[in-house]
Amino acid sequence: MRKLTYFIATSVDGFIGAPDGDGDFFYTHLDAEFIEFLTTEYADTVARLGRDHLGIADAPLSRFDTVLMGRATYDIGFKQGDTNPYGHLRQYVVSRSLTAAPDPQVELISGDVVARVRELKAEDGLDIWLCGGADLAGQLIDEIDEFIVKTYPFFLGTGMPMSRAGFGLRTLELTGAKTFGGGQTVTSYAVKR
C-alpha cells in the first residue's frame, strides 16, 4: 500500500505561511547545500518552473508519483498563470468551489476526500505527497502515514498552522533528521498506529 506523506515547510513555531497563507518568505532562505539536498532527495516535490530553473526537468520520479493539494495551495501558482504546477506528477486538487479543472492534467476531488485518498493509497505506484494546506491536512490527519518537515530558522508568531486537525495525541516515531548550514532542518516521522 502506498503511503500518504505530508511533506511541508514550516517555521520554528509551526506555521506554513503568513496569516493570509503566503509562504514566499521560505524561498528567501535557501542556500546551495539545502537546494542540493532537496533536488537530490526530493526532486519530485519541486514545481515545474523550479525544475526547469534548476536543470532537473527530466529527473526521474523517485519517491512520489502523485500530489494532493487544497484549493488555496493550488491557487498560489494558478494566480500567476500556472495551471499545471506539478505536471510530472498526477495532480489532485481538493475543492468544493471549483466545478471544472483549470487544466487537463489536474483532477478535482470535490466529494469524500478521505475515501478518495484511501483509493489512491490502494493503487500501485510510488507514494502520495500531501502538499498542503492546513485544512486539508486536518481532514486527512488519520490517513497521513509519514511527516517530513522542513523547518526554517524563522519565528513568525502567528500564521497558517501546519494543520487544523484539532487537539489529539498522535504518536510519531522519528525516522530521520538532517541539519544544514543555513539553519534549516529536515525531520522525518512515521505515524505509529
From TrEMBL:
PANTHER family: 2,5-DIAMINO-6-RIBOSYLAMINO-4(3H)-PYRIMIDINONE 5'-PHOSPHATE REDUCTASE (PTHR38011:SF11), DIHYDROFOLATE REDUCTASE FAMILY PROTEIN (AFU_ORTHOLOGUE AFUA_8G06820) (PTHR38011). It comes from the Bacteria. Residues 2-183 form the Bacterial bifunctional deaminase-reductase C-terminal domain. This is Dihydrofolate reductase family protein. It holds the Pfam family RibD_C. InterPro entries: DHFR-like_dom_sf (IPR024072), RibDG_C (IPR002734), Riboflavin_Biosynth_HTPR (IPR050765).
